[in-house]
Amino acid sequence: AAEMRRIRARNELQRTLRKVQDLEQRNKTLLEINNLIISSLTHEALFHSITLALRSAITFDRSAIFLHDAESNVLRLFAAETERLPKQHFVPGWEVPLEGSLGGWVFTNQQPLLRRDVAREKQYESEDFLQQQGLNSAVLVPLIVRGRSIGTLNLASRNLGQYTESDVEFLQEV
Predict the structure, then answer these.
(1) What is the pLDDT of residue 72?
(2) DSSP letter string over the chain?
(3) Which residue among 24, 33, 102, 114 is least packed, with the fewest CB closer than 10 Å?
(4) Given this model, what pLDDT does residue 130 score?
């Protein structure tokens, strides 16, 4: 019985250590992103640098920033990073309507959205696009400046259940 308690205690300590290491990495990533924002990069270079920094803290196969185009009232793809995924249609300038899309919901409601299993949790036709691209989970967070939505930050993965509430919180801090 004493040996079992010792093993459980060691396992709990290892889990706690992993959580602390993850938190430390996320804090380092936030600091790195903050320093990138302060530096004088172009918007595209800034996004690319932020994406590289994010990779050290969170797993994704595609990242994207959509910005609101007030004139057309759509979300327009500003920048995207993708690895080994089809890029057809997914190029800067691509438009997503606010109505009937994940990004539109996130933008309008200023709330994050987590999809652990896109196929099972699907609400919008726009999620078919994720599935067609081989993406099975996604997390979207609003980009808010002075209380006003300006766009969304989207991450997606081929892996089911890739994202957690902790990831949502981290991305909101980013």
Answers:
(1) 94
(2) -HHHHHHHHHHHHHHHHHHHHHHHHHHHHHHHHHHHHHS---HHHHHHHHHHHHHTTS--SEEEEEEEETTTTEEEEEEEEESSS--TT-STT-EEESTTSHHHHHHHHT--EEES-HHHH--STHHHHHHHTT--EEEEEEEEETTEEEEEEEEEESSTT---HHHHHHHHH-
(3) 24
(4) 86
Half-sphere exposure of 170 (CA within 13 A, CB side): 26
Is 64:79 a contact under the CB 8 Å cutoff? yes
Checking if the pLDDT of 14 tops 80, the result is: yes
pLDDT at 18 over 60: yes
62: tokens are 């595609």
pLDDT of residue 103: 94
Identify the band that residue 35 occupies on the pLDDT scale cut at 50, 70 and 90. confident
Q: Which two tokens stand for residue 19?
A: 């959580």
> What's the rounded Cα separation, in Å, for the pair 48 and 16?
32
> What span, in angstroms and rounded, lies between the C-alpha atoms of 51 and 156?
13
Q: Which residue shows structure tokens 């309008």?
A: 108
